[in-house]
Amino acid sequence: MKQLLQSAILISSILSTALLAKTAIIETNMGSITVDLNEKAAPKTVANFIQYANSGHYEGTVFHRVIPNFMIQGGGFNTAMQERDTRPPIINEASNGLKNEKYTIAMARTSDVNSATSQFFINVAYNDFLNQRDKTTAGYGYAVFGKVTSGFDVVDKIAKVYTKRSIVSEAQPIQNIVISKVTIRND
């Protein structure tokens, strides 16, 4: 009977932990951004982001692409604009029903729909054209996996920085916007 009770407590503990919402705190030299991660809609994408965050991958990366009235992108390059090593790409979960609305976070990718690794972007406008329209290469979309819940002012401040054209980006901030840490919390 004692073992049965201990097993029930253990299972209850595991289930309650699994049901907790996950939150990411993205700390930058311009302030912190808090993001609620949507594990239910984008389980593979959220797991991928958490794995990069927990491994320390994002520490010392920058927002390397900033386009006002569009998005801010980071998570792949260090302050010297050298690309960080990544794990294999993940499956695109753009068909999850989440939309590229203002202050949502989504995975960046190349023209290959299943090429997302560590880079992400935060929409600073309603970018409906990034939503999945169909399963073709042109219409596949970008997978949203969460939304900003605080630090809107930080996102807006980053979106207004001066940029320049570079080898890495058509809109690289003139001064580095550094991600010092991404912390994952279970709320």
Automatic annotation (TrEMBL):
InterPro entries: Cyclophilin-like_dom_sf (IPR029000), Cyclophilin-type_PPIase (IPR024936), Cyclophilin-type_PPIase_CS (IPR020892), Cyclophilin-type_PPIase_dom (IPR002130), E_coli_cyclophilin_A-like (IPR044665). It is an enzyme of class 5 (isomerase). Keywords: Isomerase, Rotamase, Signal. Residues 1-21 form the signal peptide. GO terms for biological process: protein folding. Its EC number is 5.2.1.8. Residues 20-184 form the PPIase cyclophilin-type domain. One of its GO terms (molecular function) is peptidyl-prolyl cis-trans isomerase activity. It catalyses: [protein]-peptidylproline (omega=180) = [protein]-peptidylproline (omega=0). Pfam families: Pro_isomerase. PPIases accelerate the folding of proteins. It catalyzes the cis-trans isomerization of proline imidic peptide bonds in oligopeptides. Belongs to the cyclophilin-type PPIase family. This is Peptidyl-prolyl cis-trans isomerase. It comes from Formosimonas limnophila. The gene is ppiB-2.
